[in-house]
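Lecture notes, unit on protein representations.

Consider one protein chain, 193 amino acids long.
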Amino acid sequence: MRKKPQQSRSRFLVGIILDVATRILAEKGWAKFNTNEVARIAGVSIGSLYQYFPNKLALAEAIRQQHLESILRVFETVNANGSTQADSLTVEVERMIDGIIAAHLINPRLHRVLLDEVPLSGRDAHQEFERRYAEYYAAFTARQLGSARAQVASHVLASAIEGVVHDASRRGQLMSSDIKCELILLVTRYLTG
């Protein structure tokens, strides 16, 4: 983002631009996404849009950042609900998988476009997300394993779950109960094996 909105009116304007841009990006994909259409549909001048977003990649990065934040909010909710002594490993794993699937179902079309079409502007732009995402998996794995193995296991677990969930998202199968059951089995067996 070129300039951070300071006043409530400018924050409102940026919010409208991002809402419209998110809808267009999800519907049309990266190749047909353009700032002129976003400005026209948002009802703002192209100059107003460029005041905050210098190009379509900057706009897409702001959308990606919002999407990543929504994923983290789902994870935080799952963690906040926590577990009880009576919960079995399967119950905890199911709760985690449900949360991760829910996070990826927030806007599946947008998720696929961001994942497959929009170029990354640089890994450093997402360091905070990656740190918090890794912490989520590390906390979950440490609760299950409670050992030195937990750090490496959390990376393996995150990669495995992310791979299955992203593949299911690409194929429109995130709601598949069979995939969910197999993923729960995979994680449970990995943690107990």
